[in-house]
């Protein structure tokens, strides 16, 4: 018999994607972690989660996710970490609606984990502060903290030192090549450029908030021809002098537009063998003000 209390899957919690509007690799620490400079932007497209609180302490994902076992799911790991640290006796059934591709550089798994922490912190009434949740999120992965931070941000270090950014409105065409790019493989590749010159946030510029470079992009284009093909098509359609780039370690690529109409006009010309979506840039994470 299902053990249920406090919630019934009725509330939907968004887990938005992120774009890296800049990604520079400026060094490497002795422990192997890379030093980065990046700009994160949230967009209004992503996964969604529902939670059902259990009184018996069991944590489980109730739906199948091909290629990801429940024990390796970042949502389940996030819930168990919050349970352990807070000392709560409650558990949860987790239902995940997956829209973001895995290995796409859109931060899907990290966003799912952050939404799990934010939602269960409220549903379980564990009352951790945002600062405490940030400390937990670092233990789950390098991209998780920005989703807890909740604001578009300029980030340094290994991606965990944030400075909030007010970014102008923009629309994006995002393409999703049919390949999964393992982040660890890209960062460990001997051909990766690791000595980019540091810039200041004042040096970040460019129409639509895209201005500089993704240092991972040349290597990923070389290793994954499908990424290069999608990027070439998008650059050819961009009204801003071919302004398009890869997000994160790939595989997804994007271009900015001034209006929804302009973005959708380009997307309407998308060849049938290319896949993607249109999304608006968000001013902040949709759960930014969720009770912590």
Secondary structure topology:
Layout: E1 13-28, E2 34-54, E3 59-61, H1 74-86, E4 91-97, H2 108-123, H3 130-138, H4 144-149, E5 153-156, E6 161-164, E7 171-175, H5 183-188, H6 217-223, H7 225-237, E8 245-246, E9 253-257, H8 260-267, E10 276-280
Parallel strand pairs: 3-4
Antiparallel strand pairs: 1-2, 2-4, 2-5, 5-6, 7-9, 7-10, 8-9
Helix pairs in contact: 1-2, 6-7
The proportion of strand residues reads 15-25%
Instruction: Count every helix, treating DSSP H or I runs of 4 or more residues as helices.
Output: 8
Helix content: 25-40%
Which spans have pLDDT < 50 for at least 5 consecutive residues?
A: 1-6, 206-210
**Number of E-type strands:** 10
Please tell me how large the radius of gyration is.
Answer: 19 Å
- Structural class determined from secondary elements: alpha+beta
Task: Tell me about the largest β-sheet.
Answer: 6 strands, mixed
**General form:** globular
What is the overall pLDDT average? 90
